[in-house]
């Protein structure tokens, strides 16, 4: 796995341009919400294309800006390159959950999953579930995967993400949103 593969998988679910007034995310392009990332460099290009009636898919450089956004906002800060060496599947799941639920939540899902698989602190000290990807969380990933399968850890991450979606206030969108995981 690599960033390229995780990015490609994410784009399969994020789609193109959307501006649904019922969606809390508001105006989005390929999963980037304007209300959360108003200074993203792609918005002026999108505004110009929409104003001129041009297809966004033809805008030069827009996909490159999206790719760089996901790399710098999610992949790198979450140390996915480090996790990818140990388990590509866990890195991709962390990336996907963080894109859909926020980096803090994606990290909390991983931390809770690591604690659940820790056999009452037999493998490493339980983590503080703080949503911060630090050296203790990274070390716990490595230690956990010496004893547990990546598939099991990913399933636990998905379970945590499910609980997050289940509590989400936009229940009418639950099947579509959960289908992204």
UniProtKB/TrEMBL annotation:
Residues 8-102 form the TtsA-like Glycoside hydrolase family domain. Residues 106-155 form the Peptidoglycan binding domain. It comes from the Bacteria. This is Secretion activator protein. It comes from Desulfobulbus propionicus (strain ATCC 33891 / DSM 2032 / VKM B-1956 / 1pr3).
């Amino acid at each position: 796995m690599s960033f390229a593969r995780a990015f490609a998988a994410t784009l399969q679910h994020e789609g193109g341009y959307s501006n649904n007034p019922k969606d809390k995310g508001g105006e989005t392009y390929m999963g980037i919400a304007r209300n959360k990332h108003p200074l993203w460099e792609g918005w002026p290009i999108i505004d110009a294309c929409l104003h001129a009636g041009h297809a966004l898919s033809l805008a030069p450089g827009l996909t490159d800006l999206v790719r760089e956004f996901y790399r710098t906002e999610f992949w790198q800060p979450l140390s996915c390159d480090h996790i990818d060496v140990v388990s590509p599947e866990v890195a991709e799941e962390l990336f996907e959950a963080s894109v859909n639920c926020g980096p803090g939540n994606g990290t909390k899902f991983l931390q809770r999953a690591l604690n659940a698989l820790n056999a009452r602190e037999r493998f490493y000290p339980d983590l503080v579930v703080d949503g911060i990807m630090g050296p203790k969380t990274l070390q716990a990933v490595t230690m956990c995967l010496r004893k547990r399968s990546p598939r099991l850890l990913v399933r636990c991450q998905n379970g945590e993400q499910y609980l997050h979606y289940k509590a989400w206030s936009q229940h009418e969108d639950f099947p579509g949103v959960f289908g992204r995981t």
